[in-house]
Amino acid sequence: MAPPAGVGAAVAGAAAVTLLSAALAFYGPPLDAGAHLRYTGAPYFAAISALKAGADLSHVFCTREAAPVIKSYSPELIVHPVLDSPDAVHEVEKWLPRLHALVVGPGLGREDALLKNVKGILEASKARAIPVVIDADGLWLIAQQPTLIQGYQKAVLTPNHMEFIRLSEAVLRDPVDSSDRRGAVLRLSQALGNVTVVQKGEQDVISDGEQVLECNLQGSNRRCGGQGDLLSGFLGVLVQWALHAGPEKTNGYGHIFISHFEIFELFSALSCGCLWCVLPHKAVQPPSLPEYGRSTTTSDMIAEIGPAFSRLFET
């Protein structure tokens, strides 16, 4: 599917938040200087991966102290040092008409003042029906206040194993049945009002509360900080593109037909967008980087994003 013209992305986290549109935005390093210096990598990885996946521009909304650090990573990121200001929500709202998606969580942290601002940004984004991808400490925020995204079917949650347990037990009030991952992901999605859930793991499990998709593409035994942030950036872009592919672009269906990996079914556009993200996320990991092996880091994977998308999707 060809990307629509003028689509970009943005991400939100302690050191940044991401939004998708003709621009990409990040929100949120913690207020203290030590914390913001610890977490500036996560928003960078999410923002740069969105650009590499096809976003037009990447805007990073962060605290004043974090701005020069994040900006120094890349001249391609547009950095706004406003997240810790009293009028942060208003400052971000001014950009929402130009943005098509929001990524919340990479580098976010749990500082009360920043979380309050991020909640306001989430509400403003929902009011404009902007797709929202939530990861990392954004998931911690949702576990504390599930009503923030209850029933918002343009939201995507991306928990790892421990984040999934915390979130599921907070929402369902029952222990997670670890022997039935597909069922557990399905139940959490249903309990949240059919919010799409992508549980990351050796096999990634995706559910929109109606169907379950599983990605068995081999990734890597190598785990390093920042890998999940790459996925958040991919999701910001591809989820928007999938939702943009309405019935007129899917042979009259509101769903998309998948014929890869022995799957021959109609799935929701959002579920397909998530699948299209976890595939390249696996493909940029160490098996495709034999020259790095066990020393592979997330920075090494960035250069592999373009080739991975070409191998998987280009014809």
Protein architecture, described:
By secondary structure, the protein is α/β, with parallel strands linked by helices. The protein is built from 12 helices and 12 strands. The strands form 3 sheets. Strands 1, 2, 5, 6, 7, 8, 9 and 10 form an 8-stranded mixed sheet that branches. Strands 3-4 form a two-stranded parallel sheet. Residues 1-36 and 250-265 have low confidence and may be disordered.
Descriptive terms for the model:
single chain; lyase; alpha/beta; 315 residues; eight-stranded mixed sheet; two-stranded parallel sheet; 16% strand; disordered N terminus
Average residue pLDDT: 79
CA-based gyration radius: 18 Å
Q: What overall form do the CA principal axes indicate?
A: globular
Assess the beta-strand content as a share of residues: 15-25%
Q: Which stretches are poorly predicted, pLDDT < 50 over at least 5 residues? A: 1-36, 250-265
Major sheet details: 8 strands, mixed
End-to-end CA span: 11 Å
Element string (H = helix, E = strand): EEHHEHEHEHEHEHHEEEHEEHHH
Quaternary state of this entry equals single chain
Number of strands: 12
Structural class: alpha/beta
Main location: mitochondrion
Subcellular location: Mitochondrion
Keywords: ATP-binding, Lyase, Mitochondrion, NAD, NADP, Nucleotide-binding, Phosphoprotein
GO molecular function, one term: ATP binding
In short:
The protein is of the alpha/beta class and 315 residues long. It has helices at 33-39, 41-53, 67-73, 88-93, 112-127, 137-144, 161-172, 181-191, 227-244, 269-283, 298-302, 305-313; strands at residues 9-13, 17-21, 58-61, 77-80, 99-105, 132-134, 155-157, 196-199, 204-207, 212-215, 255-258, 265-268.
